[in-house]
């Protein structure tokens, strides 16, 4: 049990950056093709990060480094906890802690763009936090456990009982992964009013750390998407991968189709979606229980 | 081995003696500080002695005392009359006549019952069980530390507020009276006595809030008074029903499970508890309470006043299980948790954010107790413990920051980590303790979530998850303000006196120690409470591998600073200024505008007043919850007749 736990965690630790980096490259390729461009090679994100790691790091203050490192370590920890089969609620608590560390890194710089990004990122967290907790609770209602280890050997896929939760979760994924229309806290284009928001004052090593942490994070999120489909039956894993591919493609599509919204629209829409889909689903589950 | 009864008597009476002594020492002097320090630590040691003896005894049913209480009863009666006279006198003095009504309505019927011999006699009056022992620890440690803090604080306070008449002896004396009443309340099992101490705390908090005697202070203090006296009336009604209809005199007799008619007095007591714990619709008194000097806020918010309400609700939890009262209490609590956390986003006054956060957290505790499940009570007691420590630390730090910077506005705490590094660091620990992952409050919130899920309270789950989102927002943005590093800033003089640090350092360490100690606390302090209330054993609410992972997380929080030090070795990072689109004017707080002029640059936090502002949200919240309370009282109490 213990050994199993450690092996799974190590596997995630080693494989996740490769998968995450490839996902990020795919995302860029998809986006380019949707816009009728050739796009970068799929391993471009790795080139970027290697280059960043080799550059001289410019920092605004020394605390910044502390927070960014903390963010990377906590994100990896969260992912390990999930893939090793830990407690779903604890995974989400640890996740929000790592996010807070990232926000603190931006706050600490005292730069106007960074702080604006930080405030907006906090708001984004406020938007998706209810849903992440609800996902854990939904799994508990459906399968009777908070432990990922127990959830992956469920007799039937959770999606059957939790369709509303799934819709809600995919919705907040757009916010969580900072994709347009909800990329308020950062933007992928330098010339916008936000500059790079959250990461404006990061460079070199630190920026590379953030990129790597985001890869880990993406893999974790996709893992949770997969959880909705996984059962004791090995074939279900194929379904899970298929679902992940569809969701990932969908998010890229949404990213390219919609323009950024105002923060209050995001708050209203996301809470409404969570309440309507996940909330109703929860009520129904409770009645059926 | 000193008999516990003697120590308990000492704990109830000695603070009152302390109050008289301090009241005589008019001027702030080393002598007064020494008296407070020595007296305070004596009380603390006595409280810990009682708590440890009770907790380690293994059988708490032996600690019941005092069957014949003619003399103390006379005192209690005289005390009630005295309190009533104080309220009447001050109400007339400040022309707030409505307070007299509440006071008379709460006191006279009880007096009539006492004097005409309708009271049930002969039961034990004092009973120390594990819940009382845990409360002893809170009052004894946190409460006393606040008093010690106050002795130094009041001196600084009057240096800054020269317009306020120096009555610090009176203020400090009141704090000790408060502690005495707290010890009395948690030791008593007799409802009449509980009622008496309950009223002392109401009047005491009223006097403390009105300390500065400004118009605002007077208004706010009378608001606190009438709300708490209204709760007191509810308590008095419950007390009379218990004595005259059911012929029971003790709280422990009321809280045996499964006898439906007892629900009527229990509901009245729960109503009183709602007012004490400042749940919506009674929250406004606690918000107004911050006009008083900081130690009183710290005392009211963390160790005493508001904790009495939830203490009562935790006691009543077995009765409320699966009843309409329980459902209504949980809904009011859950609603308060959510609404207060939204309101906390919109205010920038540090103390006000803390006040809303107290209301919000108490809502959570109320909701937990209202579920009446074992897991709910587990979470409630844990929350009480963690909240008491974190909140008193936060109030004290805000008070010190105010003394150093002459402002307690969160916007002015911009760059606190540079300006006042020591206080900033303590504040960061305090704030993290309120909402971050490996720290105590989150552990309890986690347990609360589990208990709501298990008891099938879907609405509470929804309140809790949305409330967590907004809680995260208002704490994290405050944390961000503190962590902002502003260059070329100077360190302010940290004038925090040593007597305040005597209080602040232990509290800071307690937060960290409790992170590690919570599995032990669960086993030795909270499990016995559940045994006493429900006669059942529960499996560990948070146990096994989760505890280990939590410990790893706590360790990591402290490892990361060291780790990042190593990672940066060998890298010579270049220092630069933050990005201001290339128009920095020498530092990161000014930029050159398009006319070539230098302009100041400042990013304020988000408050979203237009959406969640007090002017928009407060009234509807009060109305909604007032209707909930009215429905509860009408259906449960009215339905019984």
Describe the protein in words:
The complex is a heterodimer of chains A (289) and B (641). Chain A is mainly alpha-helical. Chain A contains ten helices and one strand, in the order ααβαααααααα. Chain A has helices at 2-34, 44-54, 62-83, 88-108, 112-143, 148-151, 163-176, 204-227, 236-257, 263-288, and one strand at residues 58-59. In chain A, helix 1 crosses helix 3 and helix 7 runs antiparallel to helix 10. Chain A starts with a helix and ends with a helix. The relative contact order of chain A is 0.16. With 641 residues, chain B is an all-alpha fold. Chain B is 73% helix and 2% strand. Chain B has helices spanning 4-24, 30-57, 70-93, 98-115, 130-160, 168-187, 191-209, 215-244, 251-254, 263-276, 284-288, 294-303, 305-320, 324-345, 350-371, 374-405, 416-419, 421-435, 440-454, 458-483, 498-534, 545-567, 609-612, 614-639; strands at 64-65, 126-127, 574-575, 590-592, 598-600. In chain B, the strands form two sheets. Chain B has a two-stranded antiparallel ribbon. The model of chain B has no long low-confidence stretch (mean pLDDT 88). At the A-B interface, strand 1, helix 3, helix 4, helix 5 and helix 10 of A face helix 19, helix 20, helix 22 and strand 3 of B. Strand 1 of chain A pairs parallel with strand 3 of chain B.
User: Which consecutive residue ranges of chain B, at least 5 long each, have pLDDT under 50?
Assistant: none
Taken from the alpha-carbon principal axes, the silhouette of chain A is globular
What Rg of chain B do the Cα atoms give? 25 Å
How can the largest sheet of chain A be summarized?
none
How far apart are the first and last residues' alpha carbons of chain A, in Å? Answer: 31 Å
Classification by helices and strands of chain B? mainly alpha
Mean pLDDT of chain B: 88
Percent range for β-strand residues of chain B? under 5%
Q: Share of helix among residues of chain B?
A: over 70%
Order of helices and strands of chain B: HHEHHEHHHHHHHHHHHHHHHHHHEEEHH
Mean pLDDT of chain A: 91
The structural class of chain A is: mainly alpha
Strand % of chain A is under 5%
Count of helices of chain A?
Answer: 10
Count of beta strands of chain B: 5
Radius of gyration of chain A: 19 Å
Spatial strand sequence of the major β-sheet of chain B? 1-2
The tally of strands of chain A reads: 1
- What does the main sheet of chain B amount to? 2 strands, antiparallel
């Amino acid at each position: 049990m213990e050994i199993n736990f450690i092996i799974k965690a190590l596997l995630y630790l080693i494989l996740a950056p490769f998968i995450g980096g490839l996902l990020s490259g795919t995302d860029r390729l998809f986006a380019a093709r949707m816009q009728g461009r050739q796009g970068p090679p799929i391993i471009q994100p790795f080139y970027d990060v290697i280059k960043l790691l080799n550059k001289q790091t410019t920092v605004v203050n020394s605390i910044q480094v502390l927070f960014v490192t903390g963010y990377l370590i906590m994100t990896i920890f969260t992912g390990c906890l999930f893939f090793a089969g830990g407690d779903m609620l604890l995974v989400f608590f640890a996740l929000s802690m790592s996010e807070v560390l990232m926000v603190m890194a931006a706050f600490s710089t005292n730069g106007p763009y960074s702080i604006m990004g930080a405030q907006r990122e906090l708001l984004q967290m406020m938007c998706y936090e209810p849903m992440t907790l609800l996902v854990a609770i939904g799994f508990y209602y459906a399968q009777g456990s908070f432990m990922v280890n127990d959830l992956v050997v469920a007799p039937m896929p959770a999606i059957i009982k939790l369709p509303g939760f799934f819709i809600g979760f995919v919705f907040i994924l757009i916010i969580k992964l900072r994709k347009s229309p909800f990329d308020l806290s950062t933007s992928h284009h330098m010339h916008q009013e936000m500059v790079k928001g959250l990461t404006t004052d990061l460079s070199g090593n630190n920026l590379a750390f953030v990129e790597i942490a985001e890869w880990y994070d993406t893999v974790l999120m996709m893992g949770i998407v997969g959880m909705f489909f996984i059962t004791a039956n090995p074939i279900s894993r194929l379904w899970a991968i298929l679902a992940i591919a569809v969701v990932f493609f969908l998010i890229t599509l949404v990213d390219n189709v919609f323009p950024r919204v105002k923060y209050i629209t995001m708050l209203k829409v996301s809470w409404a979606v969570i309440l309507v889909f996940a909330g109703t689903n929860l009520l129904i589950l409770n009645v059926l229980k | 081995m000193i008999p516990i009864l003697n120590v308990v008597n000492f704990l109830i009476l000695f603070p009152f003696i302390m109050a008289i002594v301090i009241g005589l020492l008019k001027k702030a002097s080393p002598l007064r500080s020494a008296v407070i320090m020595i007296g305070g630590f004596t009380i603390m040691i006595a409280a810990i002695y009682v708590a440890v003896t009770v907790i380690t005894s293994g059988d708490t049913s032996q600690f019941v005392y005092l069957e014949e209480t003619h003399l103390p009863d006379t005192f209690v009666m005289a005390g009630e009359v005295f309190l009533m006279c104080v309220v009447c006198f001050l109400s007339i003095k400040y022309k707030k006549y409505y307070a007299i009504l509440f006071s008379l309505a709460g006191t006279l019927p009880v007096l009539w019952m006492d004097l005409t011999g309708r009271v049930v006699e002969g039961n034990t009056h004092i009973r120390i069980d594990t819940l009382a022992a845990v409360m002893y620890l809170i009052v004894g440690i946190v409460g006393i530390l606040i008093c010690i803090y106050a002795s130094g604080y009041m001196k600084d306070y009057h240096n800054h507020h020269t317009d306020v008449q120096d009555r610090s002896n009176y203020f400090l004396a009141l704090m000790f009276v408060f502690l005495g009443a707290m010890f009395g309340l948690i030791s008593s099992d007799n409802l009449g006595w509980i009622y008496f101490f309950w009223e002392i705390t109401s009047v005491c908090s009223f006097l403390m809030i009105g300390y500065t005697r400004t118009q605002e202070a007077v208004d706010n203090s009378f608001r606190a008074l009438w709300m708490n006296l209204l709760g007191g009336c509810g308590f008095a009604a419950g007390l009379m029903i218990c004595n005259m209809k059911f012929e029971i005199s003790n709280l422990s007799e009321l809280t045996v499970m499964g006898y439906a008619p007892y629900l009527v007095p229990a509901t009245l007591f729960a109503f009183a508890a709602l007012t004490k714990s400042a749940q919506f619709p009674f929250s406004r008194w606690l918000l107004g309470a911050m006009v008083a000097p900081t130690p009183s806020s710290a005392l009211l918010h963390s160790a005493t006043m508001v904790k009495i309400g939830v203490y009562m609700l935790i006691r009543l939890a077995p009765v409320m299980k699966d009843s309409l009262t329980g459902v209504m209490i949980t809904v009011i609590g859950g609603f308060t948790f959510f609404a207060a956390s939204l309101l906390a986003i919109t205010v920038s006054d540090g103390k006000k954010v803390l006040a809303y956060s107290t209301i919000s957290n108490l809502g959570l505790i109320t909701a937990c107790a209202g579920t009446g499940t074992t897991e709910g009570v587990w979470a409630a007691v844990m929350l009480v413990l963690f909240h008491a420590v974190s909140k008193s630390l936060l109030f004290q730090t805000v008070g010190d920051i105010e003394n150093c910077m002459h402002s307690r506005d969160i916007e002015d705490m911009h760059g606190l980590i540079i300006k006042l590094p020591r206080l900033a660091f303590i504040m960061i620990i305090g704030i993290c303790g309120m909402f971050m992952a490996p720290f105590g409050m989150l552990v309890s919130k986690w347990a609360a979530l589990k208990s709501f899920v298990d008891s099938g309270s879907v609405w509470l789950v929804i309140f809790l998850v949305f409330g967590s989102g907004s809680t995260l927002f208002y704490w994290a943005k405050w944390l961000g303000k503190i962590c902002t590093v502003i260059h070329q800033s100077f360190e302010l003089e940290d004038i925090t006196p040593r007597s305040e640090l005597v209080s602040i350092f232990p509290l800071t360490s307690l937060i960290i120690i409790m992170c590690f100690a919570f599995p032990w606390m669960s086993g030795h302090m909270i499990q016995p409470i559940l045994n006493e209330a429900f006669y059942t054993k529960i499996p560990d609410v948070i146990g096994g591998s989760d505890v280990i992972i939590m410990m790893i997380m706590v360790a990591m929080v402290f490892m990361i600073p060291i780790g990042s030090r190593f990672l940066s070795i060998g890298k010579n990072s270049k220092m630069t200024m933050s990005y201001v689109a290339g128009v920095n004017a020498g530092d990161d707080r000014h930029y050159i505008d398009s006319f070539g002029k230098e302009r100041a640059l400042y990013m304020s936090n988000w408050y979203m007043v237009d959406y969640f502002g007090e002017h928009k949200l407060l009234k509807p919240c009060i109305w909604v919850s007032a209707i909930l309370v009215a429905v509860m009282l009408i259906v449960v109490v009215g339905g019984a007749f």
